[in-house]
Design goal:
The complex is a heterodimer of chains A (115) and B (114). In chain A, 0% of the residues lie in helices and 53% in strands. Chain A contains no helices and 13 strands. In chain A, strands 2, 4, 5, 6, 9, 12 and 13 form a seven-stranded mixed sheet that branches. A four-stranded antiparallel sheet of chain A has the order 1-3-8-7, with no helix packed on it. The relative contact order of chain A is 0.33. Chain B has 114 residues and is an all-beta fold. Helix content of chain B is 0%, strand content 53%. Chain B contains no helices and twelve strands. The chains are: A mainly beta (115), B mainly beta (114). Chains A and B meet through strand 5, strand 9 and strand 12 of A and strand 6 and strand 11 of B.
């Protein structure tokens, strides 16, 4: 069983640039969620994708956008980077069915630094 | 909006001893799930234990158990026979029935002293 994998592990960008983070879901999962974890804080929900559609969104501006592909992998795109976007970005996958939702399985995250 | 509060930024315990991490939450929902996640330096969030709100029996996973007090909105984690590998950040988290997002607390850093 393949777990959740994220790439890259570390990234340094300049304020105003754009960034794309990637995530491969755990085998058998159909939902992917993205979280932002600032240093010393708990993760904050960005959004979730199910069947290639956004299925819920946290309190993040539109410059945070995402995609889910037919193989359930996902991308998180952030435009016009700001210094406060520096954080650990966590991807998590789960399985949604009529019987309910499985617990989230997380990847190791991408550490984004904006200078 | 739901909130999760962990009032202990740091805790330490001697190896082989027992430690309890505290968590309180606020919600108006009656059906929900509560979780404890562990985040070691590798950064991956690892599920430790899960509790369904409709179950009165406290969840247990080997050395890990919870004390779920629904009326008090309290959800503490007890780690028995602490091991060096238990050292990590521990996060309490909440999700409503059918909801999409996990709401996390601020975390408790657990140190295990040999």
């Amino acid at each position: 069983e393949t777990g959740v994998t994220q790439s890259p592990t570390h990234l340094i960008k300049t304020r105003g640039q754009q960034v794309t983070l990637r995530c491969s879901s755990q085998s058998g999962h159909n939902t992917v969620s993205w979280y932002q974890q600032a240093l010393g804080q708990g993760p904050q929900f960005i959004f979730q994708y199910y069947r290639e559609e956004e299925n819920g969104r946290g309190n993040f501006p539109p410059r945070f956008s995402g995609l889910q592909f037919p193989n359930y992998s996902s991308e998180l795109n952030v435009n016009a980077l700001e210094l406060d976007d520096s954080a650990l970005y966590l991807c998590a996958s789960s399985y949604i069915s009529l019987m309910g939702n499985s617990p989230l399985h997380f990847g190791n995250g991408t550490r984004l630094t904006v200078t | 909006a739901q909130t999760v509060t962990q009032s202990q930024p740091e805790m330490s315990v001697q190896e082989a001893e027992t430690v309890t991490l505290s968590c309180t939450y606020d919600t108006s929902e009656s059906d929900y799930y509560l979780f404890w996640y562990k985040q070691p330096p590798s950064r991956q969030m690892i599920l430790v234990i899960r509790q369904e709100a409709y179950k009165q029996q406290n969840a247990t996973e080997n050395r890990f158990s919870v004390n779920f007090q629904k009326a008090a909105k309290s959800f503490s984690l007890k780690i028995s026979d602490s091991q060096l590998g238990d050292a990590a950040m521990y996060f309490c988290a909440y999700v409503g029935q059918g909801a999409q997002k996990l709401v996390f607390g601020q975390g408790t850093r657990l140190t295990i002293n040999p």
